[in-house]
Amino acid sequence: MLAFESIKMDQFVVSARKYRPMTFDTVVGQNAITDTLKNAMKTNHMAQAFLFCGPRGVGKTTCARILAKVINCEKLNKEIEPCNKCTSCKTFNDGQSLNILELDAASNNSVDDIRNLIDQVRFAPQLGTHKVYIIDEVHMLSAQAFNAFLKTLEEPPAHAIFILATTEKHKIIPTILSRCQIFDFKRIQIEDIASHLESIASKEKIETDHDGLHIIAQKADGALRDALSIFDQIVSFSSNKVTYEAVIENLNILDYDFYFKITDSILKSSIPEALLIFNNILDRGFNGHNFIVGLAEHLRNLLVCQDITTLELLEVGEKIKARYKKQSAKCDMQVLLMALNVCNKCDISYKTSKNQRLAVELTLMQLCSIKSSLEKKTSDVTEIDI
Question: Which one of 136, 170, 301, 364 has the fewest CB atoms closer than 10 angstroms to its CB?
């Protein structure tokens, strides 16, 4: 028999938990909301029912927990941030606070669960001033549970504060919405996510490539939690080194380089070159539809670079941005607009096409013919004028 030596492993904590914000100042990309909540505390204008809405992973539950901690903190500083030193803050950080109750409405959505909650609301806190009830995924409550909750939400005891969080605001009945102060959380900007990942990488002593972090931020689609999960995945894949190459390989993303080469072949009106590049893309296992969508995005970015006022709409790393500016200078705006229209038509008809490869190849042929057809029209007009 083979004897295997046991490997001792330390407890790994994912970045989303390890670097979860503990104060309002450390919340990423939601300054308007955190400032409003701090000012409400400062001026003593706190509502008794809040509704935090927005996409997943943008900080709704995090802000709810920070607000709950701030409300009961015994030694708030001038910036209205929790001290993390008083008994209330310590018990909260240790997960032992009796003044803060979290309920997951996805698994506790019956009318009996809400009635149990209402029974608890009647009792005043033994320590601190308020009891805070955080109900996550509140849209999952049944119609009966919502109705049972209405009266308590409208006239809660002075010591009770409710913070409801949801990703689907439209599923919440109007009578609940009218009783809450509503905060709409926005998707976090790509630059904010990339900067946050960079700060975590420096703390963990991980080598990073700014363009690689930008790709992670784009892939996360505004959700910081998703970005942190992808970041952990790349770190594991590439042994504490996050590079552009490692990110696109691990996430199976088509390299920008292919789009720059395809665009060069379009500008040269070289159909054979474009078809060979597309064949190489297919050989690497990429989907033709994803390629067309990516090419349309690339052409849109080139169009954005045509005017300095719209340059800020280009959400890529600095090295890639420099390449976009260089290629954009070679492009005619009319060619880009016509190319975008051709790509859009292919995108719409792709799924219904019987021969999808031919559909993309035909699109590439049309793209490579745009410049020569425009030049021919110009020469024809000149001949007529003469």
Answer: 170
